[in-house]
Amino acid sequence: MTQAITVAIDAMGGDHGPHVTVPAALSALKQHSEIHIILVGLKEAIEAELSANHAEISSRLRIHHASQQVAMDESPQSALKNKKDSSMRVAINLVKTGEANACVSAGNTGALMATARFVLKTLPGIDRPAIAAVLPNKKGMTYMLDLGANADCTAEHLLQFAIMGSTLVSCVENKPRPTIGLLNIGSEDIKGNEVVKQAGELLRASHLNFYGNVEGDDIFKGTTDVVVCDGFVGNVALKTSEGLASMMAMFLTQEFKRNVFTKLMALAAMPVLKAFKKRLDPRRYNGASFLGLRGIVVKSHGGADIFSFSHAINTAVEESSSGVLQKITEQLEIEHLKPSTNKLEESTLELSAANTTELKAIA
Amino acid sequence: MTQAITVAIDAMGGDHGPHVTVPAALSALKQHSEIHIILVGLKEAIEAELSANHAEISSRLRIHHASQQVAMDESPQSALKNKKDSSMRVAINLVKTGEANACVSAGNTGALMATARFVLKTLPGIDRPAIAAVLPNKKGMTYMLDLGANADCTAEHLLQFAIMGSTLVSCVENKPRPTIGLLNIGSEDIKGNEVVKQAGELLRASHLNFYGNVEGDDIFKGTTDVVVCDGFVGNVALKTSEGLASMMAMFLTQEFKRNVFTKLMALAAMPVLKAFKKRLDPRRYNGASFLGLRGIVVKSHGGADIFSFSHAINTAVEESSSGVLQKITEQLEIEHLKPSTNKLEESTLELSAANTTELKAIA
Q1: B49 and B154: one domain?
Q2: At what angle do helices A155-172 and A306-321 cross, to 10 degrees?
Q3: What residue numbers bound the domain in which B306 lies?
Q4: Alpha carbons A308 and A315: distance in angstroms, whole number
Q5: In the 8-state DSSP scheme, what is residue A293?
Q6: Does B52 lie in the same domain as B1?
Q7: Mind telling me how many Å the CA of B169 is from chain A's nearest CA?
Q8: At what angle do helices A260-280 and B260-280 cross, to 10 degrees?
Q9: Could you tell me the pLDDT band of residue A338, with boundaries at 50, 70 and 90?
Q10: Would you tell me which of A5, A33, A234, B220 could form a disulfide with A229, CB atoms 3.0–4.6 Å apart?
């Protein structure tokens, strides 16, 4: 019954390129018997990495040569204009032509979003794609969007994000009616800035399972399945969390390294400290989804290792097999979101792509 | 040489009222030989708490009776209209009349801000007061503002916040030119939403020691002394941090409580775990400053205990003795900020006060 899923991988993307992407692809092939992988990038580099891993081309694994690479600090404009044969762009092209169901890249976020928007276009009824990711919470997992694609949002954009987030969770987590929280600075309807107040009204009038306003701490309490916010607020919340986690880890390490006695205590407590560390391991949550495009695009952390990148591939496989795209389109129809704005959006897309310079590698 | 400083304390505010505020005041009197305290609230309740603590009225401690209290969930409008003899309002009145140099309250944030604005007015050149607080970072402490007073801000407001934050740190931390970071979603000047981009231009043109854009993780890295943002973003960042710290603490506890072996490990590591906990103890950072008013107002966490509330009193003492108000006024003159907008603001202040319903208890 399982349909074959093909994932195109930007093999050159990320800080480590093929050294990470190729072994991660091989690991994903072992893990998922139903998937096929196309490794996109410099043929020689990929072949070298395959042979280093004692692997070769097979019916489930092929190479698609692409002569260029997008640099990690390259501007979206430059990537769009000068890198038409980049591994990133060609991987996205494969999604566009239907040769692949999804693509995964650890390349730079701004260039990836701009290229994906330009090549794939947005879904009818979606003005702007959003970046969604999973964070651990006290009870399970919170899906949050937007995490940095859109610094300035309207209430309608937040509604579109909510629809996409809800559909993603219903598909991937198999939850029929995920709860949606609107990130705000108080629980009452009158709280917040103007955009958020209007978004609250739109969400209350929608068919979504809208919980109401949530606050920053609700992200990690797990109050709702989905937390919706603009890309500025989402990015700040995510980065602040990374900063705090890093500081807490540093403080804990410092306290354990204070003297010979505390070092002995650390030794004694090592199994627990390892279990704690594993539970918060960000690699287990790697793979942000670009939602709202006419194709599945998953962004891996640029510094991802093999374990981490293979998790991003898993995300692409899950989204492909659960039919997220089709279901988002259906949900948009239920909410009567007209695709008219979208048409306009597409015509000005080259221009808009320039705006995605405000995109920030999300981790 | 030390000048006597008088602090008016809203003795009825907070979740625990006089049970916390009175012993904290007694502790502060012991700690600071130069200060006087006025306990504002129900005379009988305060007297009862004094006698329970074997303390009495002295040349440095007096009671100022106020017949009403502002409830923790009372709206700012109601507090302004119906609670003209509340302990909160009377404590602020004492600052207005000059009988006290500062006031401290653990009462509800929205009512406190609205009342303080109404009674004290803003400083010339300041459109809106902001809430500033101290957070620990990897190297020391970060001052951050606004943390929730203003959900919608202009670039000019952010500049004003930067001036106030810079002056606060230079006074209280004795740093001549504190570094200022503008909270954003990328380090380049072109990043961010429209307001932040404009604020970046204003800050670059100012006399402040502007570092540039900072991201969420910089708050805890300690990249700059001050981090400036609008109240929506600041509140979300603060609450998100609280949520993450709470989740991490829960995970650590769960891992140590998993079985009899891990419990033994916890026992062995207890001194380190306690030191770690102490280092992150939010009570040590209690006391948010309402900056931009013609008087010093410090907001304590509503649930503060004696140790925590006395820290908020310390904050008020430090601000009073370092002449923050005068220096903010001087700095505003250096930046040529005209007090004209301020005039307009004051005339519409009853109206604006209603908007502070969006204020949220900051912790």
Answers
A1: no
A2: 90
A3: 1-125+292-329+339-363
A4: 11
A5: B
A6: yes
A7: 22
A8: 100
A9: low
A10: A234
Look up the ipTM and state it.
Answer: 0.87
**Across the interface, do A236 and B237 touch by the CB < 8 Å criterion?**
yes
| pLDDT reported for residue A93 | 98
List of chain B residues with pLDDT < 70: 1-3, 338-363
Task: Give the pLDDT of residue A79.
Answer: 95
Question: CA–CA separation, A179 vs A218, rounded Å?
Answer: 12
Q: How far is B196 from chain A (nearest CA, A)?
A: 10
* pLDDT over 80 (residue A335): yes
How do residues A103-120 score in pLDDT, each as one tens digit?
999 999 999 999 999 999
Instruction: Check CB contact of B276 with chain A, cutoff 8 Å.
Output: yes
Is residue A58 scored above 80 in pLDDT?
yes
Judge residue B44's burial from the number of C-beta atoms within 10 Å of its C-beta, 0-12 exposed, 13-18 middle, 19 or more buried. Answer: exposed
Residues in chain A with CB shorter than 8 Å from the CB of B228 are: none
Closest CB from A138, A185, A239 relative to B216: A239
Q: Could you tell me which chain B residue has the CA closest to the CA of A358? A: B191
Instruction: Decide if pLDDT at A1 tops 70.
Output: no
Question: Closest approach of chain B CAs to the CA of A157, in angstroms?
Answer: 15
Claim to verify: residue B112 and residue B134 sit in the same structural domain = no
A192 to chain B, any CB pair closer than 8 A? The answer is: yes
- For residue A254, tell me if it sits in a domain: no
Q: Same domain, yes or no, for B21 and B140?
A: no
Q: Which of residues 127-166 of A touch B (CB under 8 A)?
A: 136-138, 148, 151-152
- The answer to whether the CB atoms of A266 and B269 lie below 8 A apart is yes
Is residue B334 situated within a structural domain?
no
Q: Answer yes or no: is B151 within a domain.
A: yes
The total of structural domains in chain A comes to: 2
Distance from CA of B222 to the nearest CA of A (A): 10
The mean pLDDT value for A54-63 works out to: 94
Q: Which of B220, B239, B252 sits opposite A276 (nearest CB)?
A: B252
Please work out, in degrees rounded to the nearest 5, the angle formed at the alpha carbon of residue A266 by the alpha carbons of A261 and A271: 150
User: Helix, strand, or coil here: A250?
Assistant: helix
Measure the CA–CA gap between B326 and B320, rounded to whole angstroms.
Answer: 10
In a domain, A275, yes or no: no
List pLDDT tens digits, range B27-47. Answer: 999 999 999 999 999 999 999
